[in-house]
Amino acid sequence: MDDEVIDVRAELDEAPLRPFHWMLVGLVLLAIWFDGYDVLAPSYVIHYVAPAWHLDSAQSGLLVSAGLVGVMLGALVQGIIADRFGRRPTMIGGLLVSGAFSLLTAVFVDSYSGFLAIRVVTGLGLGVVMPLGTAYINEYLPSKSRFRLASLAAAGFSLGAVGASVIGVLFTVHHGWQVLFYVGSGAGVVGLAFLAVFPESAEYLAARGRTAEAARLLSRVRPERAAAYREGVFAVVRPEAGRAARSREDWLLPLRPPYLRTTVGLWLSAFLLLFVNYGLSTWTPNLLVERGDSFSLGFGTGAALHSLPFLGGILCGYVADRRLGRRGSLAVWCTVGALATVSVILTHNPFVIVAVTTASGFFLIGSQFMLNNTCAMSYPVRARGTGTGYMLGFGRLGGILGPWIGGAVHGAWGTDATFIVIAVAGALTVATSSVMAPPKDAAASSRAAQTVPA
After folding, report:
1. 380-417 confidence digits (pLDDT tens)
2. The two domains 1-238 and 242-454 share their CATH topology (first three levels equal)
3. At what angle do helices 112-140 and 87-108 cross, to 10 degrees?
4. Coil, strand or helix: which one is 322?
5. Beta bridge partners of 5
6. Transmembrane residues, as ranges (predicted)?
7. Which residues contact 362 (CB under 8 A, 6 or more apart)?
């Protein structure tokens, strides 16, 4: 009898949900937690180092932006490294780099230039974690549970941002700003632990001809088929004829009609939303303390800001599916979020400040979840990864500029102007999202593109 041909992708898609999957979700969530924590930890350093290092507001903003430059560069190269050397060593390497340089920050940094330089390198490691972790967990999860559990793993970023705020409030007063980076160095400890518990991608192993290792991992996913995996022949998906030429076409597809209009809207929206995300995260705690609110309230707003964006994104998607569509729900979310952001300047009541800050995160930062989903649904399957990568790459520029421009505006015109500029950026997303093609047009274009022969 012929040996059974094992299709790794089909085996993983059709698997029932098992404890092994939950373990992987937990590991990826933990890795992404350090991404969210360490990217935003410098927001809580500004209060301490700006006077000592004689920094103006724009220079203070660069304390956050420097790490984001590294994150952008790390995200750009992680796919190439992971495809060449594997998902497991790339993820572990990213955690070790970020952990080691966080420790160096805590122990040795005593100058502005030194802080910026080390933050760029730290960002290179951090830039690996989110995109690689998201791709990795999607490779392993069953198709029926993929979106829900991948979203749960990605929520580690918001939880990490909340963690940075909590550490900032509770420990920096007595232990100095360095404590933030001692905690961040825990990424290196996690990286070492991953050597023992973080498995390689089964699909990657099969594609590399390491079928015995792939069989062992698949047996953990579907133990009832362990014998078939030991004795079967693994199918290796090879590029079809003309794939190289098609790949070049796929790189350009988001930049051509009928997708160009949607691409422009997505890029501008991502730029503005990440500008808002990092602008708010960097400056809200510091500006509230500067204008006279309590230290615990100012730094506590960082936790409030990142406590509910995940739920905001889920509800935005629900409203989009049931009522308003993707463009309509984005417009409502960004409008309400912009109004909440402006409201911060109108009150000193602690309860109102926490409420409107939470609303800002729920609506404006939560909109990014919806935008990512909108991007994935706007292109045919063969160009989805490319389209999403382009959008997030361009959006990262907004994330880099948000803290710096927020600081420059604060230095020139004060606290209220900073919140107004961030709110206006959020409101402008209503206009940029309207540039995107209507859902019917995008869907029709996607279907048409997928019927073109190879």
Report:
1. 756 666 777 788 878 889 999 999 999 999 989 998 99
2. yes
3. 160
4. helix
5. 233
6. 20-37, 57-77, 89-109, 115-137, 149-173, 179-198, 264-283, 295-318, 330-346, 352-371, 392-413, 419-437
7. 308, 309, 311, 312, 337
Q: Which amino acid is at 363?
A: F
Counting beta carbons within 10 angstroms of the beta carbon of residue 431, is it exposed (0 to 12), middle (13 to 18) or buried (19 or more)? middle
Strand boundaries in 71-206, DSSP class E: none
Say what the pLDDT of residue 7 is: 82
* Confidence (pLDDT) at 385: 63
**Amino acid of residue 310:** F
CB atoms within 10 A of CB 236: 11
Q: Architecture of domain 242-454 in CATH?
A: Up-down Bundle (1.20)
- State pTM to two decimals: 0.84
Whether cis (ω within 30° of 0) applies to the bond prior to 51 is no
d(CA 147, CA 303): 25
Residues of the chain where predicted confidence (pLDDT) is lower than 70: 1-3, 236-250, 376, 381-385, 437-454
Q: Where are the domains of the chain?
A: 1-238, 242-454
Tokens 């979840």 label which residue? 369
Token pair for residue 60?
């203070």
Q: Specify the amino acid at residue 323.
A: R
- Looking at beta carbons, which pairs linking 390-393 to residues 24 or more positions away fall under 8 Å? 390/254, 390/263, 390/267, 391/263, 391/266, 391/267, 391/270, 392/75, 392/131, 392/270, 393/72, 393/75, 393/76
Q: Given this structure, which CATH class describes domain 1-238?
A: mainly alpha
Question: Taking a C-beta distance cutoff of 8 angstroms, is the pair 181, 103 a contact?
Answer: yes
3-state helix, strand, coil in the chain (%, to 5): 85, 0, 15
Say how many residues make up the chain.
454
Distance CA 371, CA 131 (A): 16
DSSP 8-state assignment for residue 253: G
Going by C-beta distance under 8 Å and a sequence separation of 6 or more, which residues neighbour residue 45?
63, 177, 180
| Range 148-154 contact pairs with CB under 8 angstroms and sequence separation of 24 or more | 149/21, 149/25, 151/310, 151/314, 151/369, 152/25, 152/29, 153/25, 153/28, 153/29, 153/32, 154/32, 154/130, 154/310
Residue 417 identity: A
